[in-house]
Amino acid sequence: MGNTLLSAAIGTGFTFLMTSLGAALVFFFRKQPGPGLQRIFLGFAAGVMIAASVWSLLIPAIEEAQAAGTPGWIPAAGGFLLGVGFLMLLDFVMPHLHPDAAAPEGPPTSLKRSTLLMMAVTLHNIPEGMAVGLSFALAAQHSGDVGLAASAMGLALGMGIQNFPEGAAISLPLRQEGVPVGRSFLYGALSGVVEPIFGILVVLVAGSIQPLMPWMLSFAAGAMLYVVVEELIPEAHLGEHSNIGTLGVMAGFLIMMILDVALG
After folding, report:
1. Which of 83, 138, 168, 190 is the most exposed place for a label (fewest CB within 10 A)?
2. Boundaries of domain holding 18
3. 3-state class of 96 per DSSP?
């Protein structure tokens, strides 16, 4: 268990670091990226998360269940629906604000706009941290399988790449709204701290109750795809030239698929 936790901490720590590095762009640039570049980033993140949900989470969940003598579709479908329900619940109970939105979502709140912007990206990062942590936990449970370990590292790399613009997507708009540079960076970095927290939490659960692993993997997949369909893809297609966001989705999917298949 100790090695599993360490591996999950390193993997999710890397994704948190990439979020922080993206947020650090606020020290060098005052303006946020143009709408076209933002759509590419959002689409890229969506593509990465779609591919990761299939190759890194749902397929291993089905294979794990079948190896244990259970029909693969049962935990895959059940965990998937639970993950969707979990993110829907968070959407309703956690106030948050998307960068281009005029009003916050969730229950009425008196929280500052800067806090609500951070909470929106924090929602995205919860399933990402779970996915990376579970991938490392699965690799540790099959310590002789080099492919699973490489796949976990590939997932962490893919998530880290798409976390870089996510950090900037918080810090730069906050700076434009007059928030001090240091605080803008802090908000951007803190949005990613949930990844190691939730990554380690799910490893603790999956490690103590191993039959839950297929359910946990598909749970993370459902949560990630909810974020993709509910938020990332609609935001990536705001404006007239939606093909830019579409190409971002295709690029993210392709890169994550290559990372998973080539390393796995």
Report:
1. 190
2. 2-263
3. strand
CA distance 220 to 202: 10
The residue whose two tokens read 């609500």 is: 116
Question: 243-263 vs 146-176: helix axis angle to the nearest 10?
Answer: 150
Q: Return the minimum-mean-pLDDT range out of 38-52, 106-120, 226-240.
A: 106-120
- pTM, rounded to two decimals: 0.87
DSSP tag of 211: G
Q: How many CB atoms lie within 10 A of CB 140?
A: 22
- 234 phi and psi angles, rounded to 5 deg: -60, -40
**Total count of domains within the chain:** 1
Q: Between vectors from CA 167 to CA 241 and to CA 223, what angle results, nearest 5°? A: 80
Does 35 score more than 90 pLDDT?
A: no
User: Rounded distance, CA 66 to CA 75, Å?
Assistant: 10
